[in-house]
Amino acid sequence: MSHVTGVSNSTCSGNYGGCTLPCDLNALPPPSNLSTVRKCNDVSECNGSGYCSINSVLLSGGNEGACAVDRIEPSTLGQYDGFLDYPFCNSDEISIPNACIVLGFNEIDCNNEGTEGRGGRWLTPFLNQSSCEDAKGCFEVVQQVNGAGTNLVFTGKSYRDCLISGGRWKSFYQWESGQWVSGISRPVSWQAKKTVSLQTFGQTLNFSSVQDTFFDSFQSQIVASERSASICTRSRSETYLNIVSCDCGDNSSSN
């Protein structure tokens, strides 16, 4: 006969556990309905799962990629010159760390001429961690003029100028990797068979009894306040007379 021995809490060996991300994501963020994707079976599959933070934006226009253009330099537009210190995107464009995404373009039309001199280039989803994190730039604090505040932005400086100015050379995008969470072994105990009741009885509050107790106490207080015939017949009229008589007479007193 087989039996189970007790063990102390420890990490299980083998493939017991689960992955923080599903598999077969194709480098895209997990869908809202996780039943459409497959769970990772083991550690190796989990380590290979993941997605690039920019990929959902690149596919938001319904194509296998998106058209990226350079940010607009404030000095090229008179109304913004002297107000903004760093390049920006138009309100109908999607701002990404190193460019602006313009929806509605296809791969053929996405070029410098088609984007009116803004250096259009076609970006496709990054399918692995190395390609996702290879693109880097200078990330630093920028002070906007006219008291508009400070921002941490990619400024477009070279690697050398970035380090001189105190900036940080970092990846534009972030790769989210799956992490395998191992199972935990727990001690087991034998539960003997026994007959138990299908119903349980617990302590409850008897509202009818509480109501009766309340009214009994209330009536007792009334009886105590009018405990003689003279008080019962005089108390109310005497109270009214006191209110009127207190302002009459030389001493302005009911006494």
Describe this structure in words.
There is one protein chain. With 255 residues, this protein is α+β, with helices and mostly antiparallel strands. It is 23% helix and 18% strand. The chain is built from six helices and 13 strands. Strands 5-6-4-7 form a four-stranded antiparallel beta sheet, with no helix packed on it. Strands 9-8-10 form a three-stranded antiparallel beta sheet. A hairpin with a 6-residue loop joins strand 8 and strand 9 (150-154). It is elongated and about 95 Å long. The termini are far apart. The relative contact order is 0.15.
Topology:
Blueprint: E1 10-11, E2 17-19, H1 43-48, E3 50-52, H2 55-58, E4 66-69, E5 94-96, E6 99-102, E7 121-123, H3 129-134, E8 136-143, E9 150-154, H4 159-164, E10 168-171, E11 175-177, E12 180-182, E13 184-185, H5 207-225, H6 229-245
Q: What is the SS-derived class? A: alpha+beta
Order of helices and strands: EEHEHEEEEHEEHEEEEHH
Mean pLDDT: 75
Distance linking N and C termini: 100 Å
Work out the strand percent: 15-25%
Major sheet summary line? 4 strands, antiparallel
Low-confidence stretches: 1-13
Shape designation: elongated
Strand order of the largest sheet: 5-6-4-7
Rounded to an integer, what's the Rg over CA atoms? Answer: 39 Å
Give the % helix.
10-25%
Strand tally is 13
Q: Tally the helices.
A: 6
List keywords for this structure.
about 260 residues; elongated; 6 helices; alpha+beta; about 20% strand; disordered N terminus
What is the compact description of this entry?
The chain has 6 helices and 13 strands. It is α+β, with helices and mostly antiparallel strands. The strands form 5 sheets. It has a 4-stranded antiparallel beta sheet, with no helix packed on it.
